[in-house]
Amino acid sequence: MNAPDGKLVDRLRTIFDEGHGVELPDLLTDKQFAGRDPRPAAVLIPVTDRAEPGAILTQRPLDMRSHPGQVAFPGGKLDAGEDAVEAALREAHEELALDPSLVRVIGATDRYHTGTGFDVTPVLGVIPPDLPLVPNPGEVESWFEVPLSVLFDRSNYTENSTMWKGAERRYYEMHWEGYRIWGVTAAIIFNLSRRLDITESFGG
């Protein structure tokens, strides 16, 4: 089995390049809540190469010390000497046994500063459909796939706000088959949806 290299890859590359060739104001960020020296991190947004493409997300174990039960893309901190793409692929392999050689990398999108002190680079990639992904029980409770036409349709999200670290924090959330997609993960999706005209491109 090889990494995808067909119509979906070509379409995503074209839309990705066009979408990142313009200035976009007011991208979501939690930078105002972060410290001065955020730690570099990366996540992989794995898109399945199927007639109706979807993205793979994970749910963290409920007994984890930090962010228990939260939905996220596979990812984590950069190791010494790594770039964002290398870290995203390594983390996806560690969390889901996703073979890095099966990921066709499209590119890195807008970095997201989290309020917990991370500077996250999301990496978009395309993977074969229906891979036998195996969640690492120490890091992943479960994984699931959401159609891009649903995930990147901003009308499916609700905007909420809460007081955090002495200031109002706005955030978005969406529910999908019992999973709550919100916070940093929803913000990364929201920002990328402004770069990619996904709903029109894949909504059929």
From TrEMBL:
Annotated InterPro entries: CoAse (IPR045121), NUDIX_hydrolase-like_dom_sf (IPR015797), NUDIX_hydrolase_dom (IPR000086)
Keywords in alphabetical order: Hydrolase, Magnesium, Manganese, Metal-binding
Pfam families the UniProt entry points to: NUDIX (PF00293)
Highest taxon in the source lineage: Bacteria
Required co-factors: Mn(2+); Mg(2+)
PROSITE patterns xrefs: NUDIX
Gene3D superfamilies: Nucleoside Triphosphate Pyrophosphohydrolase (3.90.79.10)
Range of residues in the leader sequence: none
The UniProt record lists the keyword Manganese: yes
UniProt keyword NADP, yes or no: no
CDD domains (UniProt xref): NUDIX_CoAse_Nudt7 (cd03426)
Chain ranges of the Nudix hydrolase domain: 38-167
Protein name as annotated: CoA pyrophosphatase
